[in-house]
Write a structure and sequence with these properties.
By secondary structure, the chain is an alpha/beta fold. The protein has a single domain, classed as TIM Barrel. 38% of the residues lie in helices and 16% in strands. The longest helix has 19 residues. The two termini are 24 Å apart.
């Protein structure tokens, strides 16, 4: 299938998921995860109208950012090391993986230096898998309270990764739990602004995620495929 064909297939599945859940297609944003494809493929994705790009390592994303800056909205979706904050903050529009106060402090300090505010999503390990990063669900509320002193960080939502399941339906409890947590936090009166975004759902399970309230779905192989590219390119 061509990129155009894959996008058309994804759009059809999104539309059907919206119909099943009574949602509007305009409520969901596709993030094209381009970490396994070339700059040229990322550029082709943008030309097809998908202008949100997701990357998870600065060395790999650097040539894409340098080529496509100004043409796309960049999302940092991987675990962010504090020593890489200087490379990422100021270039990426959103950080999806805020999960510890040491990282919050590093982001805040860098944002203060650049005189910007950084939109962040808190990564939540809903499934409890040891192999996954993120806050435990019961840690999110106190973490948000602790973030109050970092005024250069604007928490706008939550992100999670569900376990890979051969039957996508089995991921539903994870996505439902994240949406419920978001709603409970919004009702708790601890936030300066409500959390609006839910970044959840990938190639294998994005339809279920949309049915459960995802506003951003992170699509890699199902949309852009996977290529053999040279290390660091």
């Amino acid at each position: 299938m061509t990129l155009h064909d894959r996008l058309r297939d994804v759009e059809n599945k999104l539309e059907q998921a919206c119909i099943r859940s009574g949602r509007q297609r305009s409520d969901i944003q596709i993030i094209a995860v381009t970490k396994y494809v070339s700059v040229q493929t990322a550029q082709a994705v943008i030309q097809e109208g998908v202008t949100h790009i997701g990357e998870n390592r600065w060395p790999d994303s650097k040539p894409k950012w340098e080529t496509l800056n100004g043409q796309a909205v960049f999302h940092y979706i991987g675990s962010l090391q504090t020593n890489k904050v200087k490379d990422v903050i100021g270039k990426f529009d959103y950080v999806h993986s805020l999960d510890r106060l040491s990282l919050a402090e590093a982001i805040h300090n860098r944002a203060q230096l650049l005189d910007i505010q950084v939109d962040c999503l808190l990564q939540v390990n809903v499934s409890g898998e040891q192999s996954k990063h993120g806050l435990a669900p019961d840690e999110v509320k106190p973490f948000l309270i602790a973030l109050h002193k970092y005024d250069r960080i604007r928490p706008i939502g939550l992100m999670t990764m569900a376990p890979f399941e051969s039957e996508p339906e089995e991921t539903r409890p994870v996505f439902r739990a994240l949406r419920k947590l978001r709603d409970e936090l919004n009702e708790s009166a601890i936030l300066k602004e409500p959390l609006t975004e839910l970044s959840m759902g990938m190639s294998n399970d994005f339809e279920v995620a949309v049915e459960e309230g995802a506003t951003w779905v992170r699509l890699g192989t199902v949309l852009v495929g996977k290529e053999e590219i040279e290390e660091g390119l």
